[in-house]
Specification:
Elements: E1 2-5, E2 21-22, H1 29-39, H2 43-58, E3 80-81, H3 95-103, H4 106-112, E4 116-121, E5 124-130, H5 132-135, E6 140-143, H6 144-150, H7 152-158, H8 169-177, E7 182-186, E8 196-201, E9 212-217, E10 222-223, E11 230-231, E12 235-237, E13 242-244, E14 253-255, E15 261-281, E16 288-291, E17 295-299, H9 320-325, E18 329-332, E19 341-345, H10 358-370, E20 371-376, E21 381-389, H11 393-407, E22 412-416, E23 421-427, H12 429-439, H13 450-453, H14 457-471, E24 472-477, E25 482-489, H15 492-504, E26 510-514, E27 517-521, E28 524-528, E29 531-536, E30 546-547, E31 551-573, E32 578-581, E33 584-587, E34 600-608, E35 613-620, E36 627-636, E37 641-648, E38 653-656, E39 659-662, E40 668-678, E41 682-691, E42 697-707, E43 711-720, E44 727-737, E45 743-752, E46 757-766, H16 770-778, H17 783-799, H18 804-818
Parallel strand pairs: 1-35, 4-8, 7-9, 9-34, 10-35, 34-36, 35-37, 36-38, 36-39, 37-40, 38-41, 39-41, 40-42, 41-43, 42-44, 43-45, 44-46
Antiparallel strand pairs: 2-3, 4-5, 6-7, 11-31, 12-13, 14-15, 15-16, 15-31, 17-18, 17-19, 19-31, 20-21, 21-23, 22-23, 24-25, 25-29, 26-29, 27-28, 30-31, 32-33
């Protein structure tokens, strides 16, 4: 997957820069020759540039889209070289350039997520680095200038073949003065395991940046954003139970990091060879394992420390107030440290329309602790039995009272002094079915039903304290008289459910596992089952865990790392793409594979060979004085997949239409697009899909938002050539207009030359309705928050395809742009 993120102008600053060379303003043959000379290019590239210049000068300005007449080509600086030599270490960069990239977090991103980083400052790539494990399988990731020098055969074969200078005026301009950009080559069958990223920064005024991107994914190559994953056997929270990740299916519901249930839309598996991290929280049972890039929701200890020297061998002390007020963040598991705080969300129940009575919850609690159910074939009777200690007469009488009250039948009492036990038995099919349905049957298989788990906390408290009375014990430790409450069960499912019930009650409980095995009792060999011991204290002075309204903050006790080589699993979850592993919040993905996007007249060419897959994602937030004019094109061969995810927030005018030329049987192309325009912004975006082979498919989903006089346009082309039988086309264009001054246009063009095809097209234009705002306001949601929710819901089909940090950035940018915009 190829991806890019334009950080500017969220970081609206410039720094004084020293240039080794800076061309005079304006464009002519001498400028182009000087660029080629300074780069030491071969003759063929110099001639390519000069020919492109002729084409640029001969072509008129396009008149079919936004007004570009204000572009003054004579006032633009076309080349500026800020550093004399490219470096491999951030410390070697000139201070003014290093300061710029430190501010936007490039070194931090490299440490956290990336296999390779390239950073371009004005015309030149000033920093480049790639991890050695990526170089070994033959992956090439470098700036475009280096590629021309070191890999001329590959570059000459592909450069300008998809987007020739004759294509359009701005492609010709780029071809004449291109500088920097990225070159990515992935050999056949190679899967890139870690991300690559290119950063672009314009520092000078009236400057044109014309980077060039060329990506080649050979047959069977897999270039995609890296997804964090779980090994088989790891357990995910499904609301009423834990389930092994490999058994979860699309359509199942899991709990997300905010405690709500959300539907699983996709299951992803892959072979993973690398490091596996096992996180040990304060509760041993809740340890979990993840691949090294998987994000975990945490509060880093170092961010909430008190100003006090560490004592003895203790971890640095935290400020509880700071800790509880800190905003958790998703951090790759490989960046976690002992003492960091994991987030354990409280599950928000979906309360059933009818709950059981308090007596039924109490009896369920006693049954979990002491009960069993069976069917006597000879007597043809359903039997419910409670086995108590012989001294528990009062408890037996309470259970008998509840049985008679709920069933109308009197229970039978029996004392077995030899075994020191008291038995309470009743024959009742009705009670048998109620208990088995809502609490299970055998000691190691008992678990509460979904209806019970989603009951009110008051009812669950009744159930728990009955369970504790039947099977719990209280340990008082001197000299401080601290009280430790404990219960145990042979059921792993019930152990987690009790932990979750206690969490809903405002108590974080730890679970220890006592392994079973063979044992001798009175000379008789028996086999004990594993026991799960749930313990907690009500006095929170003795707890290392901190509680907030929606979650607990649980410290990490230990982190183990091991080599792993097997299949791993991951979930795509509707909404925020998070889920809980053993109760702790994780996200489904990490950083993407990155390459480059564009400013002014950038060109991107991508070759996706047979069976390969490339995804290229852009979140563009250029300053509102920037013309963002881009040509992006891909060639997709047999059974290959090309995915463009394109989000445009900034710039003065954007003209961008990512395209897929589907030349091989079974080729697939997809464009997912978001455009946001406000004020005098014009976002003219869309897609092009050209079907040249049978059984090809394309999908275009476009979402646009306009406000405060902004204008968005969808401009698309779908062409199905003769012979492209059984092709499938889907186009959806949705526009949201937020006020009377804004505008949205749609210019779809479909050229279908084959009869045996399936074509779907839909388009909608809407405004945020007052009835929706009123409905949300009646639920206590402020107007500005309601507007933000509706806008985020509108773009969600595209936003959910973004990697985590891009989705967060997009939502933040939309929130900033939306402030005070609606109504």
């Amino acid at each position: 997957m190829a991806q890019d993120l334009v950080f500017d102008y969220r970081y609206g600053f410039s720094v004084p820069a020293k240039y080794v060379y800076k061309a005079d303003k304006g464009l002519n043959k001498q400028v182009v020759e000087k660029i080629s000379e300074l780069k030491g290019e071969p003759h063929w590239m110099r001639e390519f540039r000069l020919k492109s210049l002729e084409i640029f000068l001969s072509k008129p300005m396009p008149t079919w889209g936004p007004d570009l007449s204000e572009i003054d080509f004579d006032s633009i600086t076309y080349y500026a070289k800020p550093a004399s030599n490219q470096v491999k270490s951030w410390e070697e960069l000139p201070p003014e350039i290093k300061e710029t990239y430190d501010k936007i977090g490039v070194p931090e991103a490299e440490r956290n997520f990336l296999a390779g980083v390239s950073a371009q400052f004005d015309s030149e790539v000033v920093y480049e680095n790639m991890k050695k494990e990526i170089e070994k399988p033959g992956v090439i990731f470098c700036d475009m200038d280096t590629a021309v020098r070191k890999y001329p055969e590959i570059v000459k074969k592909y450069f300008g073949k998809l987007v020739p200078p004759q294509d359009n005026k701005f492609a010709a301009l780029n071809s004449a003065v291109w500088s920097g950009g990225s070159f990515v080559y992935v050999p056949a069958g190679v899967k890139v395991p870690m991300p690559l990223q290119a950063y672009f920064r314009i520092n000078a005024q009236n400057f044109g940046q014309f980077e060039r991107t060329l990506i080649i994914a050979e047959e069977g190559a897999y270039v995609h954003y890296t997804e964090g994953c779980l090994p088989a056997g790891e357990q995910v929270v499904m609301g009423d139970r834990l389930e092994r990740v490999e058994l979860i299916k699309p359509g199942d519901f899991v709990v997300t990091h905010n405690g709500n249930l959300s539907k699983v839309s996709k299951i992803m598996t892959r072979r993973y060879k690398g490091r596996l991290y096992t996180i040990h929280p304060i509760s041993p049972f809740n340890k979990f394992s993840l691949t090294e890039e998987h994000p975990v929701l945490v509060v880093k200890r170092k961010k909430v420390l008190v100003k006090r020297k560490p004592r003895n061998n203790w971890l640095p002390e935290v400020d509880t107030k700071k800790l509880k007020e800190a905003k958790p963040e998703f951090v790759p598991v490989s960046k976690l440290e002992k003492g960091d705080f994991l987030v354990y969300p409280k599950v928000k129940p979906v309360l059933p329309s009818e709950e059981f009575s308090e007596d039924e919850y109490e009896l369920l609690g006693y049954y979990l602790a002491e009960g069993s159910c069976s069917y006597h074939k000879s007597l043809r009777q359903y039997i419910v039995r409670f086995s108590l200690g012989i001294e528990e007469k009062e408890l037996a009488e309470r259970i008998s009272y509840l049985i008679e009250k709920l069933t109308g039948k009197r229970a039978i009492h029996y004392e077995n002094k030899a075994k020191n036990e008291r038995i309470v038995t009743v024959y009742s099919k009705e009670l048998y079915e109620f208990l088995v349905e809502n609490a299970g049957r055998y000691a190691d298989k008992k678990r509460l039903s979904l209806k019970v788990m989603h009951s009110s906390v008051e009812k669950l408290e009744k159930l728990f304290w009955a369970y504790f009375k039947g099977d719990g014990n209280l340990c008082i430790k001197k000299p401080y008289e601290s009280k430790l409450y404990r219960v145990s069960t042979a059921s792993i499912s019930l152990a987690w459910q009790i932990q979750e019930i206690l969490a809903r009650m405002g108590i974080f409980a730890s679970i220890q596992v006592r392994k079973g095995g063979e044992d001798l009792i009175s000379g008789r060999k028996i086999r004990r089952k594993d026991q799960y011991i749930i313990s907690f204290t009500l006095d929170k002075r003795w707890s290392e865990v901190r509680e907030t309204k929606d979650y607990f903050l649980v410290p990490i006790k230990k982190i183990e790392v091991e080599d792993y080589n097997d299949v791993v699993f991951n979930l795509e979850v509707e909404g925020n793409n998070s889920y809980l592993v053993k109760g702790f919040a994780v996200h489904n993905c990490t950083a993407p594979i990155y390459t480059t996007d564009s400013l002014h007249a950038a060109v991107v060419e991508i070759f996706v060979k047979k069976g390969a897959r490339v995804r290229y994602t852009t979140v563009q937030n250029w300053s509102h004085n920037v013309y963002n004019l881009v040509t992006k094109r891909s060639r997709v061969e047999e059974n290959a997949v090309m995915e463009w995810v394109d989000c445009n927030i900034g710039s003065k005018i954007t003209m961008k239409y990512p395209s897929c030329i589907l030349v091989g049987k079974g080729a697939k192309g997809e464009v997912l697009s978001i455009a946001y325009a406000s004020g005098e912004q014009v976002q003219d975006t869309g897609a092009k899909m050209v079907h040249l082979a049978p059984n090809t498919s394309s999908r275009i989903v476009s979402k646009s938002i306009s406000r405060a006089g902004g204008r968005t346009s969808y401009r698309g082309l779908v062409h199905v050539a003769p012979g492209a039988k059984n092709s499938s086309v889907f186009v959806s264009c949705d526009a949201l207009i937020l006020d009377e001054d804004s505008r949205s246009d749609t210019y779809p063009y479909m050229k279908i030359k084959e009869s045996e095809v399936e074509v779907q097209h839909e388009a909608t234009v809407e405004r945020i309705g007052e009835e929706k705002l009123f409905y949300l306001a009646s639920r206590g949601i402020k107007k500005e928050d309601a507007e933000g929710l509706l806008v985020n819901g509108f773009v969600e089909p595209v936003a959910k395809e973004l990697p985590l940090e891009y989705a967060v950035e997009l939502n933040r940018l939309l929130k900033v742009e939306m402030e005070g915009s609606v109504g």
